[in-house]
Amino acid sequence: MSGSQSSGSVDRTPVEGADVCVVGSGPAGAHVAHSLASEGHSVVVLEAGERFDMESRVDRMKAQIHPEHGVDEIWDMGGDRDAYTSSGELEIPLNKRRVKGIGGTSLHWGGVTPRFREKDFEMQTRHGVGVDWPISYSDLQPYYAEVEQEIGVKGPDDAPHQPPREADYPMDAMPLSFTDQLFAEAGDAIDVDVQSAPMAINDGTYDRNQCLGYGTCEHVCPSGAKYTAERHVDKAEREGATVIDRVPVQRLEHGPDGEAVTAAVYVTPDGTEHRQQADVFVAAAGAYETPRLLLLSDSEQYPDGLANSSGTVGRYFLDHPTGGVIGLLPEQETHQDEYGPVISSVIYQYYEGEALSERGAINMMLINVAGESPAEMAMRSSAIGDDLLAQIDGQYGNTIGVIMNVEMLPDADNRLTLDESTTDNHGNPVPEISLDAGDYALNAVETGQQVGQELVEEMGGNVLFQGGNLDLSPDEMIEDSKGGYHPMGGTRMGTDPETSVVDSNLKAHDLSNLYIASGGVFPTAGAANPTLTIMALARRCGEHIHDNEF
Questions:
Q1: Where exactly are the structural domains of the chain?
Q2: Of 58, 144, 167, 474, whose CA is between 20 and 30 Å from 331?
Q3: Per-residue pLDDT tens for 133-164?
Q4: What CATH class is the domain 20-549?
């Protein structure tokens, strides 16, 4: 798709005398870079993808809503560059889940920003499952507050079922949509609490455009109201950081003693290989590409991959298996000509409790979509003429839905490895993901779908489909339910170097100057959307680097 900035005569040579080299410019890399650049450090950011023009966003939105375009086309994913393989029960359509470019996957996230809960950091202690994190909720709490202020989050200050807060949200909560109000009334009748979702969407308070109601938050916001990590990449550049795009890092090199990383080796669009040197390196290429980079950086000292003396790089991979309930209200047009975020309300009532010894936490989100467009219905239907018109009239605009993320347990057999039989455009083995959800997660899906069905039926609706996500045709929903939206694990943190990759400050156990900032460091998955926690950890990591490395 056209609309990305041309490489032209951009200088992509290494930066001399860099203090810090950050690999990746997504939510983690952007916040680490900004944190360190604002303290006066010389920072260089290496990004595999390109810098996308804002002017292209409307065209990308058109691609999103066009029934013949796939999700992977919106941000130009695919081909040899982005090749991968997937095995295991939970198939991962990877190129529909990630973006390579300045801003990373935040370019197509939905903007939902809950915090993890206190229990998420203490699953073994509290519920006898999973493991405990080496940090607590209270350790991360000030960084949650900092990130909410930095990115602009609107949310309910006094809503039930949320972790302790130290201050109000920066912006008032999103008002309940008409659909949300229907769910809230049904929830009151069956004792289910519906509340506004915390969202990184500007209402005019922040210095970016406010929401114009396109309703395409996931996968592209044409107005720029939804926060993306581009904002903090720009801020880092204004503080003096150098950001180089379209330079995929091929490997990290270390010195002869194997104690420190010496260079990130990257390739420019013309095929030239360069070595970026720095005092400190931060691998922030996301939970898919970071463990792959470490595995590709094997050496005589690290035959199983860099920072992998524990053998856990790529292991304990996590995701949020999804489920959903889609219903139809025969006598009620659910959208009343209003448009807004895809998600604006949530149900967190089933996130905690004694049941977590048997099933995962459940994060339920209520969707504001009218259903398939009339064109999509017509393309899928076998009806014609008046029968087709009657079918469309009876379904379009009457759709309601609940989608959910559920918690899965860490398992060493869930892992990302290198597929030596398939290579990318630089001849490197591609990532292979093997993931099984497990009964703990499936039990949570079953519970969540039961609650969703009860809500739909309380409203007088008919359940059309159970299991899936935002695409409302059954075939598309089944495809979308395969997971991969929230990759975590693979480079997990811990106190024991024999069972983890990084310590509580995200510093690699094996190397003196390598940090990892991504969802890959999560020891457990929780059920909350992970991006806010990723950014909070990144800012905590940046602060530690500033205080201890220079």
A1: 20-549
A2: 474
A3: 999 999 999 999 999 999 999 999 989 999 99
A4: alpha beta
